[in-house]
Every structure is written in C-alpha cells, then in structure tokens.
Predict the structure.
Amino acid sequence: MKAKIPFYLFIVLIFLLAACASPVPASEVAKEPATPTEAFTATEVPSTATVVIPSRPLSNLSADPQRKEFQAEDGKNLVGYYYPSKYADAPIIILMHWAGGDLTDWCEIALWLQNRRDENPAALERCTNAGSGLPAGMSTPWLDSTWFPPMAPEVSFAVFAFDFRDYGESEKGLGSSSNWAKDAKAAFITAAGLESVDATRMASMGASIGADGAPDGCVLYNQEAGSGCVGAFSLSPGNYLGMDFAAVVRDLASTPVWCLAGELDSGSAPVCDGASGERYRSVVYPGIDLHGMRLITPDLKPQPLILTQDFLELVFGEIVK
C-alpha cells in the first residue's frame, strides 16, 4: 500500500519550490563589462574619408596692373593701379604711399599680396624702375622681395595703389595736405567699384601720410557707405591729414586698426601710443627711429610684413601663411 503525503506537507513543499524559482534581485546579478563605443564628433573625419574643399571661382582678369583714373570729391584728378586677384569677388587692400615717394614704392608689396608674380612681367618691369625719386643711397628693403615672408599658394588678394594729389601720376600744383583725406576716401570709392572685388571686404595700409590716410579714408568711406572698410594698418602716422588719429580710431570702433612706429620717431610713436580701442593694436619698436616705409625691413621683430599677414587673416578671415 502506497503511503500518502499529508496535505499540509504538500502545501509546504509547493511554497519551497516557488521560493527557489524566484528571480535574483537585479543588484545582485553579475554583469559583463559593456563593450566600449568609439566616440565620434561632427568635426572628426575618419582617415578613410576624402575631404573635398570647394574651389573658389576664378577671375577672368589677367594679373597685369590696370591704370585707373578717378577723381576726389573736389574734382581733382588722381591715378591708381589695380592688381586683380586670381579669384572673383576677392577682398581688396588699398595701399597709400608716404611723402617720400609715390605708389611705385608699393610695387613689390603689391605683387606679394596679389600673389601672381609669375604671371606679371609688366608689374615686375615697373618694380625695376621704382624708387628712382628717393634720396641717393637710401636703403630700400621694401623693394627687395627676397626676404618677404612666404604667402600661402592659394592666397591672392586684389590690390589698389594710388598717388595722392601732387605725387606721381596724379594732378599737380594742388598743395594742401588737408585734401589728402579726400583722396583716401576717393580711393576707397574707386576700389569698391573695381571688377572682381568684394566691396564688403576692403582694407587699407599706408606709410606716413598714407598711415593717416588708411584709417581716415576708411572712416570717411564707412560714414558715407555704411560699411565696407573692415580694417586699417598704419606705419608711422602723425595726424598729417588734419584728422586726429586717436579720434578716428574711436570712430571706427569695432573695425581693427593696427599702428606701427619706432620709439624714437617723435612724430609717430606718441600718435600710436595715444590711441586706444577694443580692436586697436599698437606696436612701438624700442630704440628705433625708422619712419614710414623704412619700417618694412627684415631686421625688426616682429617683422612688419608678418604682422601684415596676421592683420589680413584677422580682417578678411582667410589663412594667409
């Protein structure tokens, strides 16, 4: 005869089996280490990817400088030379000479900025004859491009150099320095209308009288046009055009203005030191009395042409070096 299990023992057995089958709490379960996931951000490109940089549209203009006749607002006749960029809609740099010379003093620097030297035999010939009006024996390192800092191969700015009234090819016999600011403004107006130029990105660079003309023309143009000049670079200003340099820097406000001078240049160092502003930069070289174009030399540290490249990267937003 089979033995019977009491009913209460049967109930106890059911409960014991249920307890053994209950899940282990999640906190007590041993987990396998998770497989790490590779981080990837939008700025990272896998090594196997091909990065395509869109090419800039090329200009249909040759590299040869174009002679341009234009007028100041008082009707005086002025002459400049336009060095086209190899690109369409390029930013433009307006070069303003010192009282010791004329626009030809910028010829090597214009070629350096245009960066089309091999295409430009006409401009090279013009540079060969530059500086003939300077005093005999004056060192002219700004006419010797062998020491210039290299420019990135893809860089090519448009350039416009002009003669103030009473200089070079511009109208003579007009005499008053107070009118040079009108010439600087007229140069901006002319540059804005040149073919293949981006009139929203214009900057100026000048020496001595041109060092004042660079910011003076910039502020006068922006006051009339609303915008367009995005920066001015001055080598030895001295309030030569009848406009106060420090006041012009204040009026330009958010537009960068950079000023270079030799500490012993009594007409320019105080002018550079006397200006200030959020976007203003002053570089005064200690123990140096060089003025204007003579600051463009490989002997100074930091080199003025390297500072020029830094300035152009800032105002045009392009990698220059």
In short: Helices lie at 7-21, 107-114, 121-128, 180-192, 209-225, 245-252, 269-274, 304-316. The radius of gyration is 34 Å. The chain has one domain: 66-316. The chain is about 25% helix and 15% strand.
